[in-house]
Amino acid sequence: MKIQQTAAAGTMESSDIMVTISPSSGNNIEIELDSTVEKQFGDDIRRTISETLSELGITDAKVQAVDKGALDCAIKARVKAAAYRACGEESYQWGGAGK
Amino acid sequence: MEIAYASPLSGRRLALVTEFLRKQELDYDPGCTFSVLIFENDELVATGSLEKNILKCIAVSPDCQGEGLAAKVVSELVSQAIRQGQRRLFLFTKPHNRILFGGLGFYPVAATSHILLMENERDGVKKFVESVRQPDAVPAGAIVANCNPFTNGHRWLVETAAKACERLYVFVLSEEQPPFPAADRLRLVQEGTADLENVTVCPTGPYLISSATFPTYFIKEKDQAADFNAELDLTIFAECFAKPLGITKRFVGTEPFCQVTSRYNQQMKAILPAHGIEVAELTRFAQDGQAVSASRVRALLAEGKLEELRRLVPETTYRYLKEGFPNG
Question: Exposed end of chain A (fewer CB within 10 Å): N or C?
Fold first, then answer.
């Protein structure tokens, strides 16, 4: 998938993460993370974001994420939703059981 | 808890928000196009509004602070702005809220004692200024101008200023305003000064005299808000532009026509010297005993008086007005 426009998903409320995805200026995934648990989980969150994007076949994107202690599955869900919106894609492949 | 939206606010809800903001010493900005209202037991406890890409008029009831309401309001506003296709977002607040909004994905651009301007991109202004910085030359001079369009008056100001410094930055306003597109205004200044070697023409981006840094400049209202905005704008110029670019002198033409600009020039002289920047106000260039102004050029263009207009603008601008500007 290719990022066409800026899109966001999530909120900045406690236990959530707000993910904004835009077309990138270079050919890479650029992540700007602001997290209340940066010290403990900053690298894990960045890895989850990149892996989720790469599962969707997205290789260049600018990601701004404001994390308020979201669980891994919430991070994945927000990244996927924002990515689908940013790609203008409406048939979501969530990848859970019963797909 | 209940959330309500309005685009824009009107009637009873407008009165409610206005009163709520007033209690916290904030004014509702009638330019806002979208608002979020959060109610608890039918009572308004938090609100925030959006004007294009700018978040403002954000307030939380003092009794409900620390409950995450600001996060809710800002999340709603950011989502709405992005749905509307905005990417670079700004947020206006009071300086003491720096930490609160700092935790919500906004980073400070600059602050005065009254206003704090934040943006949603970390180091956004720093990266922007770095992108226009020339490797040579300290000390430099600067002009910030609209050039709508570039006239002999602008040309004279640039030429005179360029003689007085080693490097001259000419910042052309990036804010879109009729009738000439910002990209065209920038190009006409570049073409009209191409022969001056030490002149660098660049855009202001959203950072100088834009609807984010200086909303009242475009509304042309003369009140205290305009003064506060001018102070913020000049602080951004001094701290974010002049300091990294080595600018020690700002050149400006005298302003005989527009009161807002004239007041802005006065404030420039009051504020910039404290930041080590000298302000040189040069008497507006005149032809036939009349100050050359872009507004006069626009008026002549509207009347179709191209030959009369030709005497007031460089050849490059004339060609554009004659050929390039479609509905001239």
Answer: C
Reported as a single tens digit per residue, the pLDDT across B56-107 is: 999 999 988 888 999 999 999 999 999 999 999 999 998 988 998 999 999 9
- The CATH number that domain B131-324 falls under is 3.40.50.620
Q: Are B281 and B253 in contact (CB under 8 A)?
A: yes
Tokens 């602008």, located at residue = B154
> Does A18 sit within 8 Å of B105, measured CB to CB?
yes
Q: Which residues of B touch A7 (CB under 8 A)?
A: 82
Domain boundaries, given as residue ranges, for chain A: 7-87
Domain boundaries, chain B: 2-122, 131-324
Can you tell me the distance from the alpha carbon of B62 to that of B70, in angstroms, rounded to the nearest whole number?
12
Cα distance between residue A50 and residue A81, in whole Å: 14
Paired tokens of B308:
């009369």
Provide the shortest C-alpha distance from residue A8 to chain B (in Å). Answer: 6
Nearest CA to A10 among B78, B308, B4?
A: B78
Residue of A nearest to B68 (CA): A13
The mean of the pLDDT values for chain B is 90
Q: Which of residues 44-83 of A touch B (CB under 8 A)?
A: 64, 66, 68
Task: Give the count of Cβ contacts less than 8 A between chain A and B.
Answer: 47
A residues 11-40 near B, CB within 8 Å? 11-14, 18, 20, 22, 32, 34, 36
ipTM of predicted assembly, 2 dp: 0.89
Residues of A whose CB is below 8 A from B72 = 11, 13
Question: A7-87 adopts what CATH topology?
Answer: Ribosomal Protein S5; domain 2 (3.30.230)
The yes or no reply on domain B2-122 and CATH 3.40.630.30 is: yes
Q: Closest Cα to residue B27, out of B213, B226, B163?
A: B226
Strand-pair category, B90-93 with B54-60: parallel
Instruction: Give me the mean pLDDT over the B216-235 stretch.
Output: 74
Give the CA angle between residues B198, B203, B204 to the nearest 5°.
115
Report pLDDT for B216. Answer: 63
Rounded Cα distance, B129 and B250, in Å: 16
